[in-house]
Predict the structure.
Amino acid sequence: MNVMLPYKPPWSRTARLRLTRSLLLFLILIAFARLAFRLDAKSLWWDESLSLQRAESGWSALIAGHIGLTDGSNIIPTLDQHPFAFFALLGVLIRIAGSSEFVLRFPSVMAATLLVPMCWTLARCLVRQRALPATTPMVAALLAAINPFYLWYGQEARMYTLVPLLALCSTYLLLRWAEAGSPRAAYLWLLSYAVVAALLFSTHFLALLILPVQVIVVFDRRARRNIRLAALAVVTMGALGTIWVALNYLSRQGQGWGSNFTALRLAVLIPDLVNAFSLGLSVDARTVRWLDLLFAGLALLGFLWCRRPGHQRAERTWLLPLLVIVPILELEVVQRLQPVYMNARHMSLISGAFLLAVSGGLAWLWEERRWAGAGVGAVLLVASVYSSINYYALPVYDKDDIRGLGQYLRQQIQPGDLVLLNPPEMMRLWRYYLPLDAAPTGSGIEYQGVPLLVGSMADSADRMQALSSRHRRTWVVNSGMVPLNALLEPAREWPISHLFQVKQVPFHSSTSFLELRLFLPQPPVFQKLPAAPQRPLDAMFGLDVRLAGIDIGEPLFAGGAVPVTLYWQPLAPPKQRLKYILRLSRRKPDGQWQDVAITEREPYDGALPTTTWQTGQTIVEYSELEIPAHAGATPGPYRLTVQMYDAATGQKLPANASGIEVNHGDESLVLSYAK
């Protein structure tokens, strides 16, 4: 008996379109969420500060690329290596929304996000021309959404995700012009291409490497109708490109342009590009070489798909291979004349085309053997996720923690301090994070970049000597991020050999070093009281150490440390290393005392231990109490207690004083403190 099963019609075109759009929207949202996640978690680095400096300058200087480097005393005019389009976009944005890390990096986020639908759109166009398998568009959107290279540079205030977006978009518009069915449509597509191409070539100096491929597209279309018009179009595009290159190159001569670039052999360049565009910068290339080979193999399959036996004749099957190969060969030629390559970010121009080729190879594998395509796709997905997790989680892929250094200095800096900044080329970055311009008027805070951008090391030494001699404390910030000046190391060593160092605090640096040092003009040891304390005291700790006075100042910033100066006088040379404790407490409504801030250390953290003190000296200890910001809004009363104990045994020294409360339970001096 035959049983009639109900007829199940295939999916309608509308249902398939709805599903495709939903999947594409999902991938776009995934890409945006991944890029926006912890967008401001990493500090800016030097190149990003140059983006800010150029974007916030006047429009004429922005377009011309003029950037003035300053050490605080001198200004050196320089010329940026990149065209203006990205910085103009950033300049508009910061004038509207401010200059937070999130705002500065948002254009890169949006460019990397829009690469997802752009890859999908161009892949669909190539599928219609039978240059890629039918399932390529969604695969391309997926790979663009999870690509670690786009994550790295999508969270950086530079143009390296905008370039591949504009490269794909301009190529797509040119293809639509080539297949337009009416003169009006062709005109609109060509006009759109001209606008996007102008933005592309005004965004990065190597963007013109794509122009010969686009010239071939123009010639291919026009040559079928009018060979003379095709030749004229080629000559015109070539002339415009040559003029643009000449203007950029000649305007940058004598500015050190290209001095920090490297000429690489193809045997080194190609593996570097494959690794970067596949798994990004957040992996060790030596351990994932087999994955790089897998990506490269898939890209080769994508190039060869339309060449397989039995494939129908297709148009412009040469386009995708040329978009990847021609710029690399051009770069090789250019580098024989002038090094122009630093790392893969300078060739992000071809990253989108490379991903399309990989997507085509994976789509071919999927259509031929579903199990093989699914397995290889899973490997690529896991590898990309692994690299992305590394980017977020591993300190080695963090940027230098200049924000942390700035927060520490903001808490520790005191009125009258000097800040020396090495190197001075990073001045805009220092000013972005460090509390240099925000100090209250009359605070006596002064800062200077060293070594001086103009003059010899002797000039820089004289300047540092003059500044440090009129400030009681000198902070020195050192970074190895920008080793452009031969005097950086001598300027770093000068305070160590000429001043008295009392503190050194390292901060995370993934590539070099970042540190903060605190110096005094001389050892704070005097034969008599250098000045009358705010609160003179006659307090003894044990039989050897007298506390002759104490000064308590006001913090420069909310949540900053309260300056406390202690005046120690040894009556006999102490035989043991001693530590002291400053404890600020607040009385609660129930009458109990609650600690608000505690400082416990050897004098100057061991830089001037008590075993070096001599009878008749006065040792001035510049200390502090780190009070949380919320404590300042809470009513008192407050009290300040001072204790001293043997650093080796922990035994407290007996405290005695006249006219001051002494708590013999914990051997502490008790002082009232009005906040």
User: Anything to note?
Assistant: The first strand starts at residue 66 and ends at 70. The CA atoms of residues 103 and 520 lie 39 Å apart.
